[in-house]
Amino acid sequence: MNPAIKFVSLPTDLVRALQAGGPDANGQVPERHVSDGDGVPCRHCQRDVAAGEPYLILNHRPFPAPQPYAETGPIFLHADPCPRYPETAALPPVVVARKLFLLKGYNAQDRIVYGTGQLVAPAELAAAAGALLARADVAYLHLRSALNNCFQCRIERA
């Protein structure tokens, strides 16, 4: 039987520090832009930044420390405070609005578990994530953009 899952967004304390101009994973101040309303998913509230709203582009490392598997990459955040998406099994709005994601498994040492990577449609996501998290060698998952490999959120056992 597959375990229940939950989607885990970026922590509010980290997001507020970035929104206040704190350094990203590259040590740079996040860039500020205005959304055209087309494909700017916030990694905190899990909603797209609406047209005309300010947002940040920054480099993020969703791992506790640098190591060979600790990928970094660009992400978007609302420039202004937004509520954190609750840790729940409900598909986040940005997930529902897209067609395909990359799902990747990591072990307790934050290393990729080879053979876990798969492209998944939102309708198949809960079952695929549950099956991967049923494995003893998988501690958590990353949900990433299927086209650009950008980190969206973490998926854990509920």
Question: What tags apply to this protein structure?
Answer:
8 strands; DUF1203; 158 residues; three-stranded antiparallel β-sheet; single chain; alpha+beta
Topology:
Layout: E1 5-8, H1 12-19, E2 31-34, E3 54-60, E4 73-78, H2 93-96, E5 101-106, E6 118-120, H3 122-133, E7 140-145, E8 151-157
Antiparallel strand pairs: 1-8, 2-3, 3-4, 5-6, 5-7, 7-8
InterPro entries: DUF1203 (IPR009593)
What does this structure look like?
By secondary structure, this protein is of the alpha+beta class. It folds into two domains: 12-78, no CATH class; 87-157, no CATH class. Helices cover 15% and strands 27% of the residues. The longest helix is centred in the last third of the chain and has 12 residues, at 122-133. It holds the Pfam family DUF1203. InterPro entries: DUF1203 (IPR009593).
Main sheet summary: 5 strands, antiparallel
N- and C-termini, Cα separation: 14 Å
Helix content: 10-25%
Structural class: alpha+beta
Question: TL;DR of this structure?
Answer:
This protein has helices at residues 12-19, 93-96, 122-133; strands at 5-8, 31-34, 54-60, 73-78, 101-106, 118-120, 140-145, 151-157. The protein is α+β, with helices and mostly antiparallel strands. The protein has a 5-stranded antiparallel sheet, with helices on one face.
